Each structure stands twice: as C-alpha cells, then as structure tokens.
Amino acid sequence: MMDCKKALSETGGDIQKAQEFLRKKGLSSADKKSSRLTAEGLIGSYIHDNRIGCMIEVNSETGFVAHNEKFKELVNDLAMQVVACPQVEYVSIEDVPECVVSKEKEIEMQREDLQSKPERIREKIVEGRMISKRLGVLALLEQPFIKDDSKTVKDLVKETIATLRENIKGRRFARYTLGEN
Predict the structure, then answer these.
(1) At what angle do helices 15-32 and 2-10 cross, to 10 degrees?
(2) What is the pTM of this model?
C-alpha cells in the first residue's frame, strides 16, 4: 500500500505513470536480490512431440515461492525455451567454460576484417562480438523469449523476481533428443 501511495505521489496522481513507476522499482529491486542464496526450487520438464525434451532445475530462496503458480509457469517456460533453442548449452554467459571463451576469442581475432585494426581496438571489437553473438547464442538467459521476442529470457526471470520478491536462478538443464547419442 505504501509503495502504491508513494508511486501516486511521485507521478502526480497519474495511474498509468504510477504503474510504470512500480514496475521499474520492481525490476531494480530484482537486481538487488541477485546475490541472495537460492537453495529451494523445482525441477521441471517439457516434452515436445514425444521427440525432444528437457529437464531443468530452477532455484528460489524458499519452498513457499517454489509452489507459487507464477514460479511454476516460469519453470515451464524455461524448459520450453531450452527445447526450442538447440544451440543453447549453458544457463548464462558466465557459465561458458574458459576454454570455449578462449577458442572463440582466438577464432574471432583471426577474422580478416580485423587484421588492419590496432591490437587494442581489435580486442574491444572481439569482446563485443563474442558476448553479443557467439556466447550469447550459447546462453539460455540471452535468448529472445519464445512467447514474446521483445524481451530476453533474462528479462522474463527479472520480471518474475520482481513479482515474487525473491531471488530466482536457473541452475542447470539437460536436453534430450530422440535418437541422439
């Protein structure tokens, strides 16, 4: 109630602006919660057409939130996202092993369009390309959300954190495709 009252006073009584104010406040508080321990949660699964499936572990701070419908919906959406994105191998860019990052950097540094650039500038260009392109393709949280491609999976998780007021982390997943070794 106090947050609503403050939002209305901050926006001069405009309900639309007050709603937007509250949404922004919720997303900023989601960033603050990211360091809190997540040891509860759910293991969810999704199977598409009996040919491809996924199991995913998503953690929350408390078991209470893990039983919330919004949290269960998030787990299901993340599992569907993994099934829909066969190139995804890691939850976040931070999870990509250093050997993969080094190899990608080495390949990118050898591209012809960068050879004429100074070393310092070339490294910055390579960093930008690697994070936005190659490493972003490998990370689940960097993918456009399949139900609404105007936001990323990371945005979806942040919105859920803001709604439930508790830290949430995708921990790990495994994808299964019929006939693959």
Answers:
(1) 120
(2) 0.73
